Amino acid sequence: MSSEPNNSTPPGKDGPPRQNPLVQAEKLMQIAFVLPCAMLIGWGVGWFIDHHFGTHWATVAGLIFGIVAGMVSVIRTAISTMNSISTRKPR
Question: Fewer Cβ within 10 Å of end Cβ, the chain: N or C?
Fold first, then answer.
């Protein structure tokens, strides 16, 4: 078992458990890193394919794939964050 402390309060009359504000901030900061990283990885894979197999289209295809993958991740993170915020009751 993990010895990490639980960052949420137990559910009770106040509704679902609340997350630590630092955990919420980290989820939102992920958005700033995921999209550029996905684009860079897609471009890198495409570049590798272009240079090792002699193609001329894989860099663009990899970049587009990276952008799409990054946007999917950003949208999922944003929806998850909005759902966790909207399920909390005001104090």
Answer: N
| pLDDT tens digits along 18-75 | 667 788 788 788 888 999 999 999 999 999 999 999 999 999 999 999 999 999 999 9
Q: Distances in Å between the alpha carbon of 5 and those of 8, 9, 20, 58?
A: 9, 11, 11, 46
In a domain, 91, yes or no: no
80 is a domain residue: yes
